[in-house]
Design a protein that fits this description.
This protein has about 625 residues and is α+β, with helices and mostly antiparallel strands. The protein has three domains: about 290 residues, Zn peptidases (Aminopeptidase); about 100 residues, no CATH class; about 140 residues, Immunoglobulin-like. The strands form seven sheets. An eight-stranded mixed sheet has the order 2-3-6-4-13-16-14-15, sandwiched between helices. Strands 23-21-25-26-27 form a five-stranded antiparallel sheet, covered by helices on one side. The longest helix is centred in the first third of the chain and has 18 residues.
Length: about 625
């Protein structure tokens, strides 16, 4: 990790960051199991409780906690925040490393107020210290554990409660007793796979020119419901029913229209926990969903061309895409235009649709690990076509890469085994877990740094509401309070343009929540007022509305007139950006801030936080 500590750093900060380093498990250089993940998270929460809150938002059917970590001073106080999740697909464990790296970077910023990370300017790091960062490093711990320990395939979770299980179907599992569930091949003159010329241990789809031998390729495991004759077609979901990324409620479509959809939206405890938790946090403004592999960022819309997107929002994505190219080296593409497996047919029930359309966040996917660039494969017209267009030369380069840079993990030797149902087979041959699905561990540090830099820049776009209050004596024991709100943040207080109409994107408002002494509002109707939204200063990249022909800034003010002398408490904000509670004492000729003890008591009573103010006796 690249970080800088300024010379003014205090000894306490040095000690805290040294402890942070000492607590680190090797998640930046190895793929860790659930126990090690739990050790890391609990260590951070135990040693840094003032900036780190850990909670389990659910338990999987196999008894593993769904951990969520919230980072920031007063981590339970609502305010603008961002979310990152990883490993919702069992085999894509590199996302866990990146999510933990983001958490560690943010912790470092909070533990040392003079630290910077990834070359970000000090003022950007200061902005990041105001933003809540919520990290879910592993959404599918049951599936990930099986993949890490045995290679047992599951798209998300290794379970299947479907009632229709009487038909023959493949069940993944270890056949040869080596502790791994990989592949099986059976020689067959009608087989559809053949050895790769120049690398005969590697199978690839049969070509007309191939002289043989030919093989049928199956997953390592057995056939449930085997009738002694029928060999079913292998399927990635044959013994694990649900793809978590097809189980979210926005745009959900049932089987067979959408494979992996689950019995109903949020049918899985993991997806239900994520939806319930995030729905209760309207202050989330950005959402990064970590996957593998490919080396690409995928943005909305996923169900229509860019012409359906607000031009201002498209400008925001252009800006994030520019950061993605600069720091991670990955392009950003439209989900609909470049990442639908069947052109023009959306993927239904995915988490980004939920996060973007229902939660109102800047939500996007990253497919970590650009193996295509490492192999020198030219980019096709649609990015998704990378995955099924590798030719023989590309495959030979993959074999060479595996031998030279991946310790030969991907292509183990085939071993002859007597299968209890199929008879003589060969087992092994291909292990895509490290090298294809996930990068070699040696590649992790650079990937963590690049993606973390992009995500932290997006986090720094969050709205930042500042409240100013000025008092003006009007005579005859009257005081005029002027409450001024400003947004110092990049984004508006509603987030991206597509979020403005959502119910939880409520406008800012101010209300008088307490009057003590002989104070009274001259017009009680002004004791609560909607103030609308505040635009941010950012407009993305090449926003057509940001023209020097008509530069302008926006602001919001509200005035209250009170009679008498005493104490007044104001509450300003919204569920979208959080609340600030301000307590003042009014007496002629000016407004005086109450003692800290009184402000603390008000804060405890109101459940808010005392904010800044400006006194103007003129």
């Amino acid at each position: 990790m690249c970080y800088v500590r300024r010379m003014t750093t205090t000894p306490n900060a040095v000690a805290a960051t040294d402890l942070l380093d000492a607590l680190a498990v090797p998640f930046r250089s190895a793929y860790i199991d659930h126990a090690t993940l739990t050790t890391q998270l609990t260590a951070w929460a135990r040693h840094f409780p003032e900036v780190c809150h850990l909670e389990s938002i659910g338990v999987t059917p196999e008894g593993r906690d769904l951990w969520v970590l919230t980072l920031g001073p007063e981590p339970r106080r609502p305010r603008p925040g961002v979310w990152v999740d990883a490993n919702m697909h069992a085999g894509e464990v590199a996302g866990t490393a990146v999510a933990l790296a983001i958490a560690e970077d943010v912790l470092r910023l909070h533990l040392d107020p003079d630290a910077t990370v990834h070359g970000l300017p000090p003022h950007v790091c200061d902005v990041l210290r105001e933003v809540l960062v919520v990290v879910m490093p592993r959404m599918a711990p049951d599936g990930a554990e099986g993949m890490l320990t045995t290679g047992r395939w599951a798209r998300s979770a290794p379970r299947d409660a479907r009632p229709d299980q009487a038909h023959p179907r493949w069940v993944y599992g270890d056949v040869d007793g080596d502790g791994r569930a990989l592949f099986m091949r059976v020689e067959d003159p009608a087989g559809d796979f053949a050895p790769l010329p120049g690398a005969p241990q590697v199978l690839r789809p049969r070509r007309l020119e191939d002289p043989g031998p030919y093989y049928r390729l199956y997953p390592e495991g057995h056939i449930a419901g085997f009738d002694g004759d029928t060999i079913p077609d292998p399927s990635s979901l044959s013994d694990n029913a649900t793809d978590f990324n097809r189980n979210f409620p926005v745009g959900w479509r049932a089987e067979p229209e959408q494979r992996g959809a689950g019995a109903f939206p949020l049918s899985e405890p993991e997806t239900r926990a994520v939806a319930a938790y995030t729905a209760a946090r309207p202050w989330l403004f950005a959402w990064l969903n970590l996957h593998c592999f490919g080396g690409v960022f995928i943005r909305p819309p996923g169900d229509g061309p860019d012409t359906t997107l607000d031009p201002g929002e498209l400008a925001l994505w252009r800006q994030i895409g520019a950061w993605a190219e600069a720091h991670a080296g990955y392009p950003m593409v439209s989900g609909f235009e470049e990442f639908t497996y069947v052109p023009g047919k959306p993927l239904y029930g995915d988490i980004v649709d939920y996060a973007w359309k229902l939660r109102g966040t800047l939500a996007w996917v990253v497919e970590l690990w650009d193996i295509f660039a490492r192999l020198g494969v030219p980019r096709p017209g649609r990015f998704v076509d990378f995955y099924d267009r590798l030719d023989d030369a590309d495959l030979r380069r993959l074999v060479a890469f595996d031998a030279e840079h991946n310790a030969g993990r991907m292509f183990p030797a085939w071993r002859a085994v007597d299968h209890p149902q199929l008879g003589p087979v060969e087992v092994g041959g291909f292990d895509p877990r490290v090298g294809l699905w996930n990068p070699p561990p040696e590649e992790l540090p650079a990937i963590c740094d690049g993606v973390a830099t992009v995500f932290l820049k997006v986090a720094a776009m969050a709205p930042r509401v500042r409240v100013g209050v000025a008092s003006r004596p009007l005579g005859d024991r009257l005081h005029q309070l002027t409450v001024t709100l400003e947004n110092f943040g990049y984004l508006p207080t509603y987030g991206p343009p597509s979020a403005r109409a959502l119910p939880h994107s409520e406008p800012l408002h101010v209300e008088v929540t307490g009057l003590e002494g002989d104070l009274a509002l001259v017009d009680p109707a002004l004791g609560r007022a909607d103030l609308g939204h505040l635009e941010g200063w950012g407009r993305g990249l090449h926003n057509p509305s940001q023209s020097m022909a008509f530069p302008r800034s926006l602001g919001t003010r509200h005035r209250l007139v009170l009679r008498g002398e005493g104490h007044v408490v104001l509450r300003v904000g919204s569920c979208r950006v959080g609340w600030q509670t301000l307590a003042f004492e009014l007496r002629d000729p000016a407004m005086v801030r109450r003692e800290d003890a009184i402000g603390a008591a008000v804060e405890a009573r109101e459940g808010g936080r005392a904010g800044s103010y400006q006194a103007d006796p003129s």
